[in-house]
Design a protein that fits this description.
The protein is built from 2 helices and 4 strands; from the N terminus they run αββαββ. With about 150 residues, it is α+β, with helices and mostly antiparallel strands. A 4-stranded antiparallel sheet has the order 3-1-2-4.
Amino acid sequence: MSNVSRTGREEINNATSPTTFGRSVESQAQMQDAAAEASPETGGEVLNVYRLEPIAKPDDPRWGNAPNHGTVVVAARTPGDARIVAAARELDFMEVDAAPAEDVTTANASAFRDDKLYTVIEIDRNRHDIKRGILDGTVSVDTIRPVEQD
């Protein structure tokens, strides 16, 4: 139910704004701050160390959508950030002849982002001597198969 009311003879108010997301000065500043904070070159950042471990059985049908990379150790800000750091190492569709099903990136389809496939365990915290990224383990790049065979 809308809280928009019409009084007098003005045009109908449809409760929309003529602005476009991301074009305001505030939005641009927020996106720049987020990009700078997400950068691995950010110095002096306090990070935690997380181990991402597969928890689903090998015959779980979810593995059909995303490969099992085994155990991966990452430096990240939070458990959610650990999933993002690990997923970022996978090959994205834009780098091969393939297309995503529902988004402009395949990062959201990563096995690391599925809490039914991977669990995140904190193994160390408040570290200043590491950079955000993968510390141990291998993330394969065969997550996407091209539609055209070589």
